[in-house]
Every structure is written in structure tokens, then in C-alpha cells.
Amino acid sequence: MLVLIVEPAGPFRDWLRRTLDEAGFGHVEADDLFQARELALSTMAELVALGPSLDLNEAVAATGRFARAAAVVAFRNARNEGAEARLRAAGAADALARPLAPGPTAERLRRAVLDRLAGRGAERIACGGGAVIDLKRREVRVRGVAAPLRALEYRVMEMLALRGGETLSRDAILDRLYAGREEPGQKIVDVTICTLRRKLRGLLASPLVETRRGGYALSAHASTSAVAA
């Protein structure tokens, strides 16, 4: 997934960048809300992380704006139930107060995106043909058999499933896999898709991923539905 960080350069942005890198999340960064609005439109990030430098009124207004197209998580310097209630009322998926630990923070960010794209509390996505993506275990199972996917292959499969039948360009996939870090080039996307198809070919009657003009998507015959825990 791709996270848009809205926070001026400084210790918190550095910490959040490292947290996202360790979790394997792509990220882009905006110093202010004006830049963030432009990046939100151009990148179609799945999550907007509002840093603690925004005052509460700015954060509430920004939440209402960004929540129309992405999950929003607001970070605050201290826990305040009143502030959290205002942010959630404006559409925030979560509000996190410092101090924070990297692992739990990354999981709550991921959960915010999954709740938005797959449905609140969803743990699995059924993709048709007996294929199920287990969001909690991070694996693809076909009629109960786990496909032998590497982490990168799973992330691409999850990405396409969460987007349903929407086509994702190679650049969009790269952004979600590597944004904020050195990118290996578009060829890695084609290689990963090829390997993913090969590993699923023996388990499925029809391919789950198809090539479309401009990128890749779940095959037209595949229909996704979320399953709660």
C-alpha cells in the first residue's frame, strides 16, 4: 500500500518513514496540506497519515477532505478523547497518540486500509475459483492449499484483490512496493506477475491476474468478496 505522510521534515517524519520501510509500505511525503492535496490526486495513495504538527482544527478539516478517497490516520502528541472523537467524526479511520511503537503502528495503519478497501473486520478476500486471500496470515490459499508465494508476490496479489477489477499501472504497483526507497525498475513488476501466475497456474482452472492496457488487474471472471473473521 502507499501512504502519504503529511508532516514537515523532522524527527517524527523520519520515524514514520523508517516504520513504513520496515513494514514494506510505500510512502510519499508532503511538507504541508497544499502539497499533500496535489500528491493525493497524483498518487492515489490508499492512506493519508496526518502528522502531529497539524493543530487539531487543521487535522479535522484535512481529515474530512482526504477521507473521501483514502483511509486517514491522524497522529497526535498526546492522548485526548475529545480530539479523537472529533477526528473520527470527520472520517478518520484511527487516531494514534504518542509515544508509539513501530510494529503496532504499522499494523493499525494496515488495518485502516483493509477496513476501507475490504470492509471493516475483514480477514479474508474470496477471489473466485476457490482462491482466498488470508489478510491476517498474508497468504493465498486455493481450496485450502497455501500457494508458495514469496512476500513480494503476495503483496502484489493482495494489492490487486483490494482494488477489485481496477487496473493498476506498473508505476502504481512500483509506488506501492518501493516508493520512498530505491526502485529496481518496471521490469520487477512484470517478473513478479509472471512468477505469481506460474505458481497459481497449477492450483487454478483460470488465471487470476490478467494483463490490460496500462497495467494489471484481477481477471474479469474473478469476483472479490470480503469475509469477516
Write a short abstract of this structure.
The protein is of the alpha/beta class. It has helices spanning 11-23, 33-43, 56-66, 81-90, 102-118, 151-162, 170-178, 187-201, and strands at residues 2-6, 26-30, 47-50, 71-76, 94-97, 122-128, 131-134, 139-142, 145-146, 209-212, 215-218, 225-228. The longest helix has 17 residues, at 102-118.
Layout of helices and strands:
Elements: E1 2-6, H1 11-23, E2 26-30, H2 33-43, E3 47-50, H3 56-66, E4 71-76, H4 81-90, E5 94-97, H5 102-118, E6 122-128, E7 131-134, E8 139-142, E9 145-146, H6 151-162, H7 170-178, H8 187-201, E10 209-212, E11 215-218, E12 225-228
Parallel strand pairs: 1-2, 1-3, 3-4, 4-5
Antiparallel strand pairs: 6-7, 6-12, 7-8, 8-9, 10-11
User: What is the succession of H and E elements?
Assistant: EHEHEHEHEHEEEEHHHEEE
In whole angstroms, how far apart are the ends? Answer: 22 Å
Low-confidence stretches: none
The amount of helix comes to 40-55%
Query: What structural category arises from helix and sheet content?
Result: alpha/beta
Q: How many strands?
A: 12
Shape: globular
Total of DSSP H or I helical runs spanning 4+ residues = 8
As a percent range, the share of strand residues is 15-25%
State the strand order across the main sheet: 2-1-3-4-5
Radius of gyration: 18 Å
* Average of the residue pLDDT scores: 88
Largest sheet: 5 strands, parallel
Structure report:
By secondary structure, this protein is an alpha/beta fold. The chain is 43% helix and 23% strand. The strands form three sheets. A five-stranded parallel sheet has the order 2-1-3-4-5, with helices on both faces. The mean pLDDT is 88.
